[in-house]
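Lecture notes, continued. The same structure-token format from the folding unit now serves as the input rather than the output. Read the line below as a description of shape only.
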């Protein structure tokens, strides 16, 4: 607990952000459960203690705890306190692969749902200097889940000349890179992956089941064919609490 009269780092950060305070606090408390600062079966501090630590009203703490209770992370008992009931999805973590072979592998126990499919499109978000765009693309919007929890929303654009060679059943079973890697005669000469961090907008919040403003990881993957045409652009949005990037340095 912080010393009396001195604001905690959490309180200072919360005052600076434009995101609703109870949403920030819910994210902070989830992180404490993830990192085992609040272990499973332990009793967490009282509402009054948390309000003092974070420099907010008791009602704001209750709003944050309500979210965690709805997620099944905590359970509250009258006269006994609030207890951690489970950790926050560590077993559901999805690693963003950083090598070609890793990008071809499907994730264990993952389900892939095709939300929409549209021909005659072009991607809006495309960096300059990496190949040239094809005349038109097949646009697939897909949602990846594990054990009923959505962790990735992806917009996949495939050169229509390439997509004609892909079995439509693969759209709900293969990773975006695997879709084009398995196309006979197609040689990929350049592949890039760009990762940035952002926050969930209303649409992402609804489709991934996260709160508005929660952290997300934007991952763009680009594959260029031998003729210099961009064969694939895949724009993925990962839940921030279910993604991990690990890079081997030696």
């Amino acid at each position: 607990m912080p010393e009396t009269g001195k604001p905690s780092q959490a309180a200072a950060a919360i005052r600076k952000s434009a995101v609703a305070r109870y949403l920030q606090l819910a994210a902070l408390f989830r992180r404490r459960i993830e990192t085992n600062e609040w272990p499973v079966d332990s009793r967490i501090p009282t509402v009054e203690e948390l309000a003092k630590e974070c420099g907010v009203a008791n009602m704001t703490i209750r709003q944050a705890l309500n979210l965690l209770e709805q997620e099944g992370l905590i359970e509250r008992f009258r006269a006994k306190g609030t207890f951690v009931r489970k950790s926050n999805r560590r077993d559901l973590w999805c690693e963003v692969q950083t090598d070609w072979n890793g990008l071809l592998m499907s994730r264990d126990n993952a389900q892939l749902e095709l939300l929409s499919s549209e021909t005659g499109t072009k991607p809006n978000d495309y960096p300059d200097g990496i190949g040239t765009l094809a005349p038109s693309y097949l646009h697939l919007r897909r949602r990846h889940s594990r054990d009923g929890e959505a962790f990735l929303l992806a917009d996949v654009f495939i050169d229509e000349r390439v997509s004609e060679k892909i079995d439509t059943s693969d759209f709900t079973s293969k990773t975006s890179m695997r879709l084009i890697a398995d196309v006979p005669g197609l040689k990929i000469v350049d592949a890039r992956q760009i990762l940035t961090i952002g926050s969930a907008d209303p649409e992402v919040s609804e489709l991934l089941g996260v709160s508005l403003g929660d952290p997300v990881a934007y991952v763009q993957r680009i594959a260029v064919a031998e003729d210099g045409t961009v064969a694939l652009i895949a724009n993925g949005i990962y839940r921030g609490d279910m993604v991990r990037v690990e890079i081997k340095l030696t």
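Point for the exam: The chain has two domains: 9-84, 90-245.
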